[in-house]
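Question:
When you can, review this sequence-structure pair and walk me through the C-alpha cells.
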Amino acid sequence: MHHKLLFIDDHAVVIEGYKSILSFNCDNHTFESHSVHSAQEAHQHLTDKANNTIYQFVFVDYTLPECEELQLFSGEDLIPIIRKHQPQSKIVIITSHTEHFLLFSLYKNHALDGILIKSDFTANEFLKSFETICNGNSYYSQTMLEALKRIKALDFYLDLLDMKIILLLNQGIKTKNLNDHLPLTTSAIDKRKLKIKQFLNIEKGNDEDIIREAKKQRFI
C-alpha cells in the first residue's frame, strides 16, 4: 500500500530518522512525504488552496516554533487545522512531554490516532504504532498509557476544567485573570481551587503551593 505522509517537526534530522524507520516495515508499505518545520509553515501548507495532496498520515511534534500572529503555540493548535483541511488523515502527536494533565488533555480533546512519547521511542515502537494505526486502531506508547490509567482513576474528582486551572497557573496566569481563559466566574474558579487544594492535600497555601505539589505528583 502506498501512503502520503506529512511530517511537522522543526528538526529535519529527526524527520529523516522517522522516514528511515518506516522504510523497514514488513508489509510492503511505500511512502512519499512532505516536511514542514514550524507551526506557521504548517499552517501555510495546509491552507494552501493550490495544494491538492491528500495525506494518509500527519505526524506532528508537540513542541514547535510558535506563531503568535496565528495563535499557534504548539503542535496541538494545528490539530483543528489538519482536521479541516485533511479530514481523512490519521493524526499522530509526538512529544517529549510526560506531564499527565497535558497528555490527558490531548487524549480527551482531540481523539488522536496516536500519541507517542519520545522517552518511549524505539524503531520497533514507531513501526508498531504505524501498523496499528494502519489497521484502524489507535496507538498510545507506554508512558501515555500510564498517564491515562492514573488520570482516569481520579477523573471522578478532578475534571478537565480543574486540570486546566492547574495548567494555566503553571503557565504563570494569575488567579484574577483565569476567567479570561476559562468559561467560569471568579467565584466558580475559587471553589474549584479549593477542591484542587483538598485533592492535593494542601491544607493552607497559595497558587505556588498548588503548582509545587502538582509537579511533585507528576501531574504537570
Notes: Residues 170 and 193 are 13 Å apart (CA to CA). The beta strands are 2-8, 30-36, 57-61, 90-95, 114-117, 139-140. The chain has nine helices and six strands.
